[in-house]
Amino acid sequence: MASKLKKLVDDSKEGSGTELDLVDKGIVNILEIPGFASLKNLTKLVLAHNKISSVPPNIANFLNLEIIVLFNNIIEELPTTLSSLPKLKILNVGMNRLNSLPRGFGACPMLEVLDVTYNNLSENSLPANFFCLDTLRALYMGDNDFEHLPPEIGRLKNLQVLVLRENDLVELPKDMGELTRLRELHIQGNRLTVLPPEMGNLDLVGTKQVFKADGNPWVTPIADQFQVGISHVFDYIRSDTYKFLYGRHIAARADPPPKSVDKSKKISRIKK
């Protein structure tokens, strides 16, 4: 296997030396990839479907990296040095075992796409400066453990795609209404009963937009509107009738719906 990996690295060097694609090669340790340290011009690193448990801090030495794909490994934490990569635009660490994101992560200067799908993240897992990632265009956080979304989500003004499906969300903050560039929102499979009226500011109705919200225990008036169509849902939440209902609902402070999915069996929870 080592000789095969060496050949792939050598081939990369002989080519432009900017892309290394080592999908499903049984890699356990990035530092043990033969000749890896010499690939200083790497712009794209794909190590999906391996058995990598940690990312070395010296990943920050690869100053030209724009794309890192570590999907489907067994990574439990990321190094704080990641945020110092000056050109990093796409980071995919979906399908791992992350319980948190590193301190200072929000300092990534160019990050446009972040995929943390299917990990063990919650609102308590995010570093204090996470919502300083104002270059983000797409944020994939499905299949995690969020119950509440911090109101600071409203700072991500450039966000066009937000995926929050299959979490444990019991409410959405009114600050969602500030994401005026959002064209795709996935909130299906949560514990949501109402939508904040401020979401009426969003442009999520039309052939080029995507709004998915099934699998939530909506209050009857909202559920009825979903039966008719998405445009009716948004018309309704903009109405004074709904604003009154929403205010009463929040004031009542009812217990949130129970969790319907046992996540203790998730692959991401299984220890090595």
TrEMBL record:
Keyword check for Cytoplasm: no
Domain of life of the source: Eukaryota
Gene3D superfamilies, sorted: Ribonuclease Inhibitor
Keyword Ion transport: no
Pfam families noted in UniProt: LRR_14, LRR_4
Keyword set, alphabetical order: Leucine-rich repeat, Repeat
One GO CC annotation: cytoplasm
Chain ranges of the Disease resistance R13L4/SHOC-2-like LRR domain: 108-203
Protein name in the entry: Ras suppressor protein 1
Organism field: Biomphalaria pfeifferi (Bloodfluke planorb)
